[in-house]
Design the sequence.
């Protein structure tokens, strides 16, 4: 069993410890001369030098032992081969790091102290290469002298979609039925949980007698209903799902079981 295809893996915890170091520096006092000598001008005061760590190491680890948290769903594809993390903060350069995965994925990145934004991505190629399979972003304040925990969820990156309805529409008979939506990642694995980008849905029907219960889906558990009013002017309809970077799915046609039935063709544009 692939360790990344485990329902218990639902979130990642990122832990950072920031330390501050302030070395001591002495200040020289006023120098005075021996009796009878001309007075020397006072020495300029010297400021103590302070060295502060402005970043902290953050280690990210995901695997079968990752704790479950229903409020932070996570999609980890069985095709996961590497992990990448980037950290951005106002006024600071973006820090990033990648690592290859075995039974777990572990990577460390130097996070700026202050208000950061963490982005974690999983890929099907080594060293952050290939196709993105899932991604998650979250803001987090990293504090000095503290163990900082960052909880971040991962959503699946949709590469293809298959749409279908199981029953035909019979002209003149009002009906309502579910639209089947199966989204897959670049490795051909069915995505469970949230999608990194919403899938937009649109229906084409010249008669205006068929409608969808929603115009988009954001996760695999969303339910879409196809409703038909029963109008006798209905001659057919098509449903399309679109999202940036999503490849066209193979079209599916509802079966025709009586002479009065017409198909609904489902396709992805």
Sequence:
């Amino acid at each position: 069993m692939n360790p990344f295809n485990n329902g218990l893996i639902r979130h990642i915890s990122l832990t950072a410890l920031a330390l501050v170091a302030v070395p001591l520096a002495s200040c020289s006092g006023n120098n005075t001369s021996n009796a009878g000598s001309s007075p020397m001008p006072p020495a300029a005061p010297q400021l103590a030098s302070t060295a502060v760590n402005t970043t902290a190491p953050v280690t990210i680890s995901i695997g079968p032992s990752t704790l479950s948290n229903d409020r932070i769903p996570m999609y980890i594809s069985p095709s996961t081969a590497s992990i990448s993390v980037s950290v951005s903060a106002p006024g600071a350069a973006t820090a990033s790091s990648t690592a290859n995965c075995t039974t777990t994925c572990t990577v460390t990145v130097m996070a700026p102290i202050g208000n950061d934004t963490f982005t974690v991505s999983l890929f099907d190629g080594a060293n952050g290469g290939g196709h993105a399979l899932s991604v998650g972003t979250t803001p987090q304040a990293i504090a000095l002298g503290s163990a900082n925990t960052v909880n971040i969820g991962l959503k699946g990156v949709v590469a293809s979609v298959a749409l279908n309805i199981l029953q035909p529409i019979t002209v003149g008979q009002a009906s309502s039925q579910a639209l089947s939506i199966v989204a897959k990642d670049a490795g051909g694995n069915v995505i469970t949980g949230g999608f990194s980008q919403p899938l937009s849905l649109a229906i084409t029907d010249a008669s205006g007698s068929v409608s969808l219960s929603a115009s988009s889906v954001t996760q695999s558990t969303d339910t879409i209903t196809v409703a038909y009013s029963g109008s006798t002017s209905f001659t057919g309809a098509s449903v399309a799902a679109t999202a940036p970077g999503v490849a066209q799915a193979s079209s599916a046609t509802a079966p025709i079981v009586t002479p009065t039935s017409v198909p609904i063709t489902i396709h992805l544009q």
Remarks:
- Residues 6-13, 15-35, 44-52, 249-261 have pLDDT under 50 and may be disordered.
